[in-house]
Amino acid sequence: GNSVTQMEGPVTLSEEAFLTINCTYTATGYPSLFWYVQYPGEGLQLLLKATKADDKGSNKGFEATYRKETTSFHLEKGSVQVSDSAVYFCALSERAGGTSYGKLTFGQGTILTVHP
Amino acid sequence: EAGVTQSPTHLIKTRGQQATLRCSPISGHTSVYWYQQALGLGLQFLLWYDEGEERNRGNFPPRFSGRQFPNYSSELNVNALELEDSALYLCASSLGTATNEKLFFGSGTQLSVL
């Protein structure tokens, strides 16, 4: 079945450091890929998404590129802030043909802590 | 505009009891999803409702069930509670059913089974 593997955390960085959180996936067909973020005490929020190979999703300084050849969707940010401290989830959507299964498969999540 | 709201925020039950969790989607959203976020297990897909019907179900036993009402709100019922059902239950809604559809999540119901 489909699966998502994220780099093991937690990740601790100093403010303004470069961030990479690795995400690789296994899927049949052509899934859409997502990064969701969960800030302390809040629900998950969509951070960015990409729907086909070579698409780049970006938001709030974060970027991720859909790499079909390496089945990866790594999250990057050039300069992190304390306010970026959160749990980050990579996810893929499943479908058969053009029909959605309505199901997101999530990675385990990566805890990011940014210190001043 | 109100986001996805879930109630109660916390729920404490004992083994064998039943739990009922509620979710109100964003106005205009017809799809509701339920996920279980258990410690160490990440988010696991439970159920998907759209237009009042169950469209898909994750790999959970039948004692996990739910429904969607005509106003698109939803209820998740867990019967014969077991200790391992202790988790954060997240509800999400979406405007449509496309595979790239953005999901909006609530803050969850923390269920503790003693």
Ends distance of chain B: 37 Å
Radius of gyration of chain A: 14 Å
Largest sheet of chain A: 6 strands, mixed
Q: Which structural class should the secondary elements of chain B be placed in?
A: mainly beta
Question: Runs of chain A with pLDDT <50, length 5+?
Answer: none
Largest sheet of chain B: 7 strands, mixed
Envelope shape of chain A: globular
Whole-number average pLDDT of chain A?
Answer: 90
Q: What fraction of the residues of chain A are assigned to beta strands by DSSP?
A: over 45%
Order of helices and strands of chain A: EEEEEEEEEEEE
Distance between the termini of chain A: 41 Å
Structural description of this entry:
Chain A is mainly β and 116 residues long. Helices cover 0% and strands 55% of the residues of chain A. Chain A has no helices and twelve strands. In chain A, the strands form three sheets. In chain A, strands 2, 5, 6, 10, 11 and 12 form a six-stranded mixed beta sheet that branches. The model of chain A has no long low-confidence stretch (mean pLDDT 90). Chain B contains no helices and eleven strands. In chain B, the strands form two sheets. In chain B, strands 2, 4, 5, 6, 9, 10 and 11 form a seven-stranded mixed beta sheet that branches. Chain B has a four-stranded antiparallel beta sheet with strand order 1-3-8-7, with no helix packed on it. In chain B, a hairpin with a 5-residue loop joins strand 7 and strand 8 (74-78). The radius of gyration of chain B is 13 Å and the shape is globular. Classes of the chains: A mainly beta (116), B mainly beta (114). Chain A binds chain B through residues 31-32, 36, 41-46, 49, 51, 89, 93-95, 100-109, and chain B through 3-4, 31, 33, 35, 42-43, 45, 48, 50, 55-56, 58, 90, 92, 97-108.
